[in-house]
Design goal:
Layout: E1 7-12, H1 14-17, H2 28-36, E2 39-42, H3 48-51, H4 61-72, E3 76-83, H5 90-96, H6 101-118, E4 125-130, H7 150-154, H8 159-173, E5 178-183, H9 191-205, E6 212-215, E7 218-220, H10 229-238, E8 242-251, H11 262-281, E9 285-290, H12 300-303, H13 320-331
Helix pairs in contact: 6-8, 11-13
Bound molecules: ligand G3I.
EC number: 3.2.1.8
Catalytic activity: Endohydrolysis of (1->4)-beta-D-xylosidic linkages in xylans
Protein name: Beta-xylanase
Length: 332
């Protein structure tokens, strides 16, 4: 349970975990998902490669299963995502090699209108554009990820105009949905969020229906925590935007036994709570979403030599992180 209108959510992969969901006989995972969360984000089901695998083929099975689950349990849904450099299907990558900007625009517009239109009215927030800005350590430094994104690359003369159009198409198809920019390494005030702040101002000045800024919240105990998350949220809120923590998890390097230390477990709880506190302190924060709630389904071990990132173990035992979040929500 959350105070005011703050939604507490989890990512879930409908194709993997919800297809064939039987409300009379839910799995243990499904029971927890229904009982603990008011909002769901499709971890993969609405990404291009999953939902639009061939030029004339849309596959809505996973996304439909997620929408049906949410509806059956009175949950909200955050859409994810329409414009991203990653997880694009092979046909997009191939076609992009010869696209003119007009061709890229047409393909993107058709996709956005089809996907957003299908779920219009049922998605309270959309991560319209994901990970648009490079990191300091990327070649070229902090700037738009134009070359890596097939759509922006085709329209490299004015990528911001295309970004604006994606927001406009989304808004036309679903006028009630709150439309977000979303990225990682975007919690605190830093060079990357400075770039987003400038981009948000530019889009708003152009009359683009941009409504929110999402910090993903993928943290690692290998690194320090930037305490300026509340300050960062406040500056976006001052632009008139909503803010959200959209993909929270806190991973860590594990010992040879594969287990975290007591100190790591406590520090993980503290980091989760700091992200939630920023959300509780800033009235414009609309949602706090964890990127999956159980270690057995976490994306982390596939990508990093780290783990223990979520708020429950593989056996669904609640970690101190879970308890601390619940306490903070109850106290708020
Ligand atoms: O494409 C095949 C699919 O056809 C097949 O059904 C499936 C069977 O296992 O494998 C598929 O690929 C997987 C893909 O997700 C599905 O789209 C990959 O193996 C898997 O590695 C991939 O990982 C996802 C990753 O994004 C890349 O899209 C993770 O599950 C997901 O947690 C992660 O989420 C991202 C956010 O979207 C954006 N922010 C960062 C976050 C973590 O990387």
């Amino acid at each position: 349970e959350a105070p005011r209108d703050l939604q507490i959510g989890s990512a879930v992969w409908g194709q993997r975990d919800l297809l064939g969901h039987d409300p009379q006989d839910p799995t243990a995972f499904q029971q927890i998902l229904a009982a603990e969360f008011g909002s769901l984000t499709p971890e993969n089901d609405m990404k291009w490669a999953e939902i639009h695998p061939e030029p004339d083929v849309y596959d809505f099975a996973g996304a439909d299963a997620l929408m049906a689950f949410a509806q059956a349990h009175g949950q909200e849904v955050r859409g994810h995502t329409l414009l991203w450099h990653s997880q694009n299907p092979g046909w997009v990558t191939e076609a992009a090699a010869t696209w003119t900007c007009d061709e890229a625009r047409d393909v993107l517009e058709d996709h956005v209108r089809t996907v957003v239109g299908r779920y219009a009215g049922d998605i309270y927030e959309w991560d319209v554009a994901n990970e648009l800005v490079q990191d300091e350590w990327d070649a070229g430094g902090v700037r738009l990820r134009t070359e890596a994104n097939p759509f922006l690359a085709a329209c490299s003369d004015d990528p911001v105009a295309l970004i604006g159009d994606v927001f406009r198409w989304t808004h036309e198809e679903d006028p009630e949905s709150v439309l977000f920019l979303n990225d990682y390494n975007a919690e605190g005030v830093n060079a990357k969020t400075d770039a987003y702040y400038a981009l948000a101002q530019e889009l708003l000045a152009d009359g683009v229906p941009l409504h929110g800024f999402g910090a993903q919240g993928h943290l690692s105990l290998q690194y320090g925590f930037d305490e300026s998350i509340q300050e960062n949220f406040e500056r976006f809120a001052d632009l008139g935007l909503k803010v959200a923590v959209t993909e929270a998890d806190v991973r860590m390097p594990l010992g040879e036994d594969g287990e975290p230390t007591a100190e790591q477990i406590a520090l993980q709880a503290e980091r989760y709570d700091k992200m939630l506190q920023a959300c509780l302190e800033v009235a414009a924060c609309t949602s706090f979403t964890v990127w999956g709630f159980d270690d057995g389904r976490s994306w982390v071990p596939d990508v990093f030599p780290e783990g223990y990132a979520t708020i429950m173990t593989e056996a669904y035992e609640k970690k101190p992180a879970y308890d601390v979040l619940l306490e903070s929500l109850t106290a708020a």
